[in-house]
Amino acid sequence: MVNNLLQGKRGIITGALDPSSIAWHVAEKVFAQGGRFVLTNAPLAMRMGKINELAAACQTEVVPADATSVEDLTLLFDRAQEVLGGKIDFILHSIGMSTNIRKAKPYEDLNYDWFMKSLDVSALSFHKMMHVADKSDALNEGASIVALSYIAAQRVFPDYTDMAQAKAVLESIARSFGQVLGTKKKVRVNTISQSPTMTTAGQGIGGFDAFFTYADKMSPLGNAPAEACADYCVALFSDLTRWVTMQNLFHDGGFSSVGISQPIVEALTPKE
Ligand SMILES: NC(=O)c1ccc[n+]([C@@H]2O[C@H](COP(=O)([O-])OP(=O)(O)OC[C@H]3O[C@@H](n4cnc5c(N)ncnc54)[C@H](O)[C@@H]3O)[C@@H](O)[C@H]2O)c1
């Protein structure tokens, strides 16, 4: 195991709600690799989750911020630099929310106000974070920015409804802002397209258990767990990946390249 990959680096980690959150695992792994960061989440989530326990374990503080608010994000970047004592080297965007999914609205009957909210929370917030970071000159040369995505950006998963569009926008923002920040400051911007993962957001999706099992049976390596996604984030935040940018990187045990697998063939073959 390589150690101290992130020694001396300062960051912001969004989206850790409880120990099942992917961001929670990222915070633990980054801390173990010597990275220092502030945690942030929506003010409402601060009351529901356990983020303060994580902050204590990672010797840091939580800065509440609604990721749809440019004002909150401006205060977040100011406070993060104050707490950490310098500019930012890595950012994790691990934010997703759809009221249409929560209320089980079918795709052909979406509520459009909620649709706009899904896009704002789950995708435009990524643009807003980078906009604020750029405008306030908060990033160090060679910084690395990662957002978490899902393959529903490319393929249809019926119960994922408006989040499919949100993820497509998120991945597109990574490319467009990646060009801007790469040119200006050699900053990398990527999305990781993660396997279905048992988290609060994941399990809120209708039929989640079925497509978790389906993806697991389709993937030669099985579904990638949250801890492994955190390892991949560490690699992308580190100096070992300095020329990787504007990519959507599948972290899915091979799922995205498979047409059908033997376990699925066997499951669908009628028993004599
Ligand atoms: N769980 C999966 O199967 C899976 C698969 C691929 C990608 N992802 C993505 O991973 C990311 C993290 O999700 P997770 O599965 O760890 O679930 P999670 O519920 O633990 O994390 C989602 C986070 O978004 C935060 N959030 C919601 N609205 C916000 C706002 N307005 N401002 C700031 N934060 C806000 C929540 O408080 C929560 O901490 C999401 O982008 C999700 O789409 C999840």
Characterize the structure shown.
With 272 residues, the protein is of the alpha/beta class. The protein has a single domain (10-268), classed as Rossmann fold (3-Layer(aba) Sandwich). 46% of the residues lie in helices and 14% in strands. It is built from 11 helices and 6 strands. The protein has helices spanning 22-32, 43-48, 51-57, 70-84, 99-102, 112-135, 161-185, 200-203, 208-218, 226-237, 262-268; strands at 10-14, 36-40, 88-93, 139-149, 188-194, 248-251. A 6-stranded parallel β-sheet has the order 2-1-3-4-5-6, with helices on both faces. Helix 7 (161-185) links the parallel strand 4 (139-149) and strand 5 (188-194). The radius of gyration is 18 Å and the shape is globular. The protein starts with 9 loop residues before the first strand and ends with a helix. The mean pLDDT is 96.
